[in-house]
Structure prediction request, 671 residues.
Amino acid sequence: MRPYVLVFLFIGIGLIGCSQPQDQDQQLLLINEVVKTVNQNQINPRPLDDQLSNDMFFKYLEIIDPNKIFFTQKDIQQLTSFKTKIDDQLLNGELTFYHKTQQLLQAGIENAEAFLRITFDGKLDLNKEENLETDPKKRAFPKDEEAMADLWKRRIKLKILEEYFIEQKLHPNFTSDQLMKIAKERAQQLLTSQIKKTQRIDKETRFGEYVNAFLKVHDFQSTFMLPKEKEVWQTEIDRSLIGIGVRIKIENDYPVVEEIIVGGPAWKSKFFAEGDVILEVGQGAEIKKAVVGMSMLEVISLLKGKKDSEVRLALRKSGGYIKEVSLIRKPIELEQTTGYVLQYNNQEKVGYLRLPRFYGGEEGCAQHVLNYLKAFKEAQVNGVVFDLRNNKGGRANEARNIISYFLEDGVLMQMQKGDEEPRIFESQHSKAVYDGHLVVLVNSNSGSASELFSGTMQDYQRGLIIGSEATFGKGSIQRFYKIHNQEEGKLLGEIKLTIGRFFTASGRSPQYNGISSDLVLPDKNTGLITGERQYKYAMAAKNLSIKEVTQKVRKVKNESEIIASSVKRINLGESIFNLELEKSILAQRALKETKISLNQEAFFKRKERIASSLRRTGRYIFDQKDLKVDDVVIPNGEAEKVRAIRNKRDIQQDPYIFESYQIMQDMFQIG
Prediction:
């Protein structure tokens, strides 16, 4: 075993070598500009010293080998001398540490391929009493090549057992030999694909990981993006792109259609179905390219393009046959603000407003929210549930405008750059656009501008904040800085750099701790550490001098009675919220039970226990068909009608929305 592995070590080092001089010049230019930009603009730049070097050393290893499956302790020993030298290299324009890690990483990847082949060619004893620690944070890097081979053998066993367990559920009539054959083939395919994906990461992305190691030890939110990555980020913020209208995922090295966006060219063509495999993509009259093995970003870049340009695809359909498709790219609008009027059993009507992001664009989300609020008023709705779950934020100016719709005057938010005096933003409205009751629905993925809105509503007691124990905890402000190669006129990338903090109207910071809900609705993350709180280099919380703020529009009254009424409903019988709480307990247990037995009998017993628990927590299906969901804006066109039908079914099947509706009824009665 050992001589074979050493051969691959030698080949690995030989193959990667050092970067070409031109590449190295560009890498040095990039990292030098990043360091300079951070020192000049980051809210709290760290000195380039041995402590930063040490932190960057471990962060970089975590980024490039998070599962500790490529580097051995022998490799780490070769790198140890750099622990206190990376800062000097950053100052002196050296990349020795980066190149050395790349050589060892490439060797480790090729060794992993060798381990994979040898292990699958040999015999595996699945009755042996041994285990695998699946949490890399709880184990060290393997001691040497022999220990690494043993780690891979155990990982292979685990994957085979997982696939065997799945296959026996799918094919109960198959013999154990048949099941084992399928499980081994599937495990080998999946593990080989994972290694290949790591191997195919291009040199720009690789160096981007090094840049990000430097940024991440300053602040969790600071990030380097290649131009192609920034383009994807911008699409998400503006909620629009030009393409064919499909979301994809990578399975077994092939891009697979995961979702067909209603209204897009793919949806209109009626040629596409979820699960279609994309084999080739061509631009206009050009010869189509095979896309097997490409990264998600590479495939997306081929599918996107100029408006009205042609893209041609070869699809493998579920029946196995190949279909050639030609489409014309069009602007695709991703999910934007939606609103409906809810009514249950002739109770009072409630407006429901969902905002997926605080997006900008030609017409931003503030205008869309304003349109719905006015429509709710015409529909004589006296209460609104504002759903900000999974809304990660976006444009602060859009958030400020939306906050102002619910207040007559007063402070909307505050922000502070570095040690400068805080800047206060005040409402320019003399009258609130919407003056009715308000419930804000959040979860642990509600971040940034979502926290600004919910926190300020809480400051003014303007609405009741309900949902997860706390929101994400992002109270930092970022700005993009472009990094250019001026000589070549080439954009190398952009850094999203933390330059300040934002605060709610009273001066509270959502940073780190998030906004705590007034009423907690149990969910699968209850009791878990989520949001920025789980990251080592997250920026600490820092409030301004807290000042009481007041407003005259409307305040939540009898809050304790409203909360008590909801808690009584939640605890009545076996509610879906109780089952969600059970899911969180299972998740907490899974975080602790990370050492997995690789003995087939013990492994299956554990899987059956988990499956039994999941069956219990998953057996309660919520579907409130008696909840009427009426359009505020009449759908115009086939695509809009299809979206509305989907949205209405989603609302009826969402217990958190229905409980929000019932809480609103309590507010009408006692609030």
